[in-house]
Amino acid sequence: MSSQSPTPAITSVNVGKSTGVRIQIHAQPGAKRTEIAGLHGDAIKIRIQAPPVEGRANEELIRFLSEKLGVSRSQITLTKGETSRSKSFVVTDVSIDFVQKTLLASNS
Fold it and tell me: What residues are paired with 78 via a beta bridge?
């Protein structure tokens, strides 16, 4: 059982033969530094240093999630919200408990 309370921001998904986790993100581009800023409704709010121009903020989000979760960038896919602040990412081959502990503990 997870030590974190379940949040709609992080859910399990099946991706082909593997399992993964869908992460709902509320992005705030143009920040001083990239960091988790807590929850924003049913999403994790992440401040992004990169501007929302030519996909730079999306690239920075993928880099940040990859670093935080210790996975390769190829395991992270933007599935919704390419030009929106409201985004959905799928990360393959990780557990929901690990993602919750890693991303939500960053906020404590």
Answer: 89
pLDDT in tens, the chain (108 residues): 344 456 789 999 887 877 899 999 999 999 999 999 999 999 999 999 999 999 999 999 999 999 999 999 999 999 999 999 999 999 999 999 999 999 988 554
> Which amino acid is residue 24, in one-letter code?
Q
Give the total number of structural domains in the chain. Answer: 1
> Which ranges of the chain does DSSP label H, i.e. alpha helix?
56-69, 96-105
Any idea what the CATH number is for the domain that residue 56 is in?
Answer: 3.30.1200.10
Question: What amino acid occupies position 61?
Answer: L
